[in-house]
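Task: fold both queries, return tokens.
Query 1:
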Amino acid sequence: MNLVKIVALAGIAGIVIGIVGIRLPNAQDVRRNRNPISQVVARDAGVPVPEISGYHDWKHVNDKPQFIMSRLDLLCRSPFPEEIAAEKLDPHVRHYMLCYVNAIGEHAMFSEKHPRFPVGSVVLKEKRDSENPKSQCMLVTAMIKRTSGYDPVHGDWEYVVLSGDAGTLQARGKLENCGGCHAQKRSNDYVFRDELGEKKLALLR
């Protein structure tokens, strides 16, 4: 290819780039690590789990934090070492729980006796240190309904664990401990709804 053809092709490429609005990273971008793609990612860097953004505006499942008692407290004997070890893996017990559900999951949560949550549903629970809704939040956990095939053994839910201010991601994915526990509620699409209360649950059809 001679010099004339190279110059002509370069000119055509410049016209195309100008028309579609593509800006190639220049040397200054590279030095500052500011190419267009990295900027898109950076906009969400402060939100470890975008799916739970704005969850304080979601529907409350319970208005007042509910204390989650340990099953070991109900035993008529001393717990076995393996039972104590298993409970240490449970983030819910001996905390006051405040539960939220996003708009996608509202109907299943509040209106279905045997719910089937749509893809995109998010159920989130805050673990607080007292029954005061404004008390310190110690931990945030959430489950996100993914598309069919994500994790069929556990209802295609992704589990998420965050710090109390929801600013630090501690774990997420197909968490075996979470999925194994929620398997108890397979008939309810793997979702615990104790926060609704017995009376409300009894009215569901």
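Query 1 returned. Query 2:
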Amino acid sequence: MLKKMLVVCAVVSLAGSAFAADMVAKVNLDVSGSGKFSSSWGSMDMTAGMGFGIGAEVIDKVSDSVEVGGGLEYQMGRKIEKVDGVAVTGPEVLFNFVPIYGLVKVNFPAGEGATGFGKLQLGYSIIHSGNDAYKGTSTLGGGLHYGVGGGVVVSDVVLELMYSTYKGTLTEGANKADIDYTKIALSGGYKFKI
């Protein structure tokens, strides 16, 4: 039920922002990533390599300092480099998430011609996928997504640093593992009127 509510909230947020004044198209560089697989049989920690992603956000001004909207991010497949501190060898193990989210931004002056901001995201990873080496014959499911960060806008160029968490599931028969993946991403984008 919680999953359905989050999806509905994210879709309503995006739909409500369809007539917004601004859209931000961006490219992400994920400089750090780690995760945990947890189930009734135990847990494993993992470290992911550097990754890239693309995204877009639609934003509407609520007041001079507050904006709300929604966004979508597509992560390119990222490689699992270590599991429980041991290097992964053999075929590349790749996975990714695609979250849809609502957002709140609080803006503040950051010097002449620049606006700083803090940002919160809350949504749902509608897609959690991986190659055969990652999922085998398992079924993958999405989960909660949230993030916090900030950045600066100068002449419609947006630079942003975000800490984000993505949750998902990996199910094989009666066995289910919960997946928590966190990353730090540096994004660059361009804001334009729509």
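Both queries returned. Flag for query 2: The chain is about 10% helix and 70% strand.
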